Amino acid sequence: MQKAYLKLDLNNPQNGQYMLAVFHLVPESGDLLSAATEVAAESSTGSNIEVGTATDFSHSLDALVYKVDEQKNLVWIAYPWRLFDRGGNIQNILTFIVGNVFGMKEAKALKLLDVWFPAEMLEQYDGPARNIDNLRKYLDVYDRPILGAIIKPKMGLTASQYAEVCYDFWSGGGDFVKNDEPQADQDFCPYEHMVKYVKQAMDKAVQETGRKKIHSFNISAADFDAMIKRADLIKDTFEPGSYAFLVDGITAGWTAVQTIRRRYPDVFLHFHRAMHGAFTREENPIGFTNLVLAKFARLAGASGIHVGTSGIGKMAGSPDEDLVASHALLKFKSEGYFFSQKWGKISHADKDLARIEAEDETNSLNLNDELWRGIQKSTPILSGGLNPTKLKAIIDIMGTVDFITTMGAGVHAHPDGTRAGAMAVLQACEAYQKKIDINEYAKDHEELARAIKFFGA
Ligand code: CAP
Ligand code: MG
Ligand code: MG
Fold it and tell me: CA–CA distance from 116 to each of 79, 179, 306, 314 (Å)?
């Protein structure tokens, strides 16, 4: 037991000085409380034994176990957020709180379930600079999800073949195409060629359909300079609004995400979460939840992040899990598993504003406006095993149309090809908007009918 890290009588942990975290912790042996203090020590100022070099000041930065639930093996820890890098640095926070602790002998299971950021802390973080509202405006698409595709096969098309598939999807009515997450500068599809051909395909589709289109380019690379080179190439080739930057936020890392957020604040930043399952899957005893991932992605400034399909598509993930993550992206005040998070940056110390907010309903509306000293909303991106027949189910479960959906196999596997696949998605969406059952709507919409026959089977 490391007593310095225990304070079960901590008065008002939400006083603005602490970032709060709840862990599920199963000790290897011994009692929960003492394992909890080991976790708090290792994830803040300490080690496995009290050190003689600690000072009064260093102790003021100790993380504090302030609550435990012995029945459910839950542990609440308050981190004085002054611990963290002043540069609004997500990788630094994660290195503390989900860093060495995952390798500790004392923990048989350790999962970060939820986090809470005080307004004072939010002040130092970027949050998204762009989100779905910007995409809607550019595309002139409102009142429905933004309908996208991932080009498949995942790999192996040449640059011109790749662009041709983009064209087919766009010409069939699709809005948004994304590179698949491993797309880089492969020898058979050089990055520069891919960009050049996609531009031609987009121009052609825009001209023919009279609608704007967007392509999300994976700019993840081995080093920072290579990422910037790719980003600048796209920026020099495309008109503003017509492209997004995709970063593999876990494999390329948080520094890649934050770098792009800061370098290109006028570009939609698409966070692909490949490898998240190693941390987030429910059956994994060690890791963090999708909710935690979504909250940090929003804090870092991702314009959108994948949140799964609530069990409807091919990836693991329950509605409980995926919806709570979506809401953490979209809402100004979101309910997590343990905390209700407000994304406003009005400090608790700012008593005047706090009073006005509490007393005056009209002003409170203004003060709650995310654009006003707040972390803007981000965008849920729903992907993985979706197809036109699943669109209504996913909208219903989301309870909103404020999301991007991308379908890979769900459009390219259509028996009549990608263009027909795109048309089927659009038709399924029209049916939803007109409140007509898709089977009914399919009677005079051939592409949808063929999709239902194929995917329904
Ligand atoms: C979807 C996808 C995405 C997954 C990742 C894929 O393709 O492009 O990478 O959605 O999972 O390669 O599987 P399909 P998540 O439409 O063909 O399934 O979105 O949950 O992070
Ligand atoms: Mg160390
Ligand atoms: Mg993919």
Answer: 10, 33, 21, 30
Q: What is the mean pLDDT of residues 111-128?
A: 95
Please give the distance, rounded to the nearest whole angstrom, from the Cα atom of residue 249 to the centre of ligand 1.
15
pTM of the model: 0.94
Residues 3-116, CATH architecture: 2-Layer Sandwich (3.30)
Every domain range in the chain assigned CATH 3.20.20.110: 132-452
Task: Confirm or reject: Cβ of 336 under 6 Å from ligand 1.
Answer: no
Binding site membership of 315 for ligand 1 (Cβ less than 6 Å): yes
Q: Where in the chain is the domain with CATH 3.30.70.150?
A: 3-116
Residue 315 Cα: closest atom of ligand 1: 20
152 is catalytic: yes
* Nearest protein Cα to ligand 1, atom 1: 384
User: Which numeric CATH code is attached to 132-452?
Assistant: 3.20.20.110
Residue 181 near ligand 1, beta carbon < 6 Å: yes
Residue-wise pLDDT tens digits, 229-284: 999 999 999 999 999 999 999 999 999 999 999 999 999 999 999 999 999 999 99
pLDDT > 90? residue 42: yes
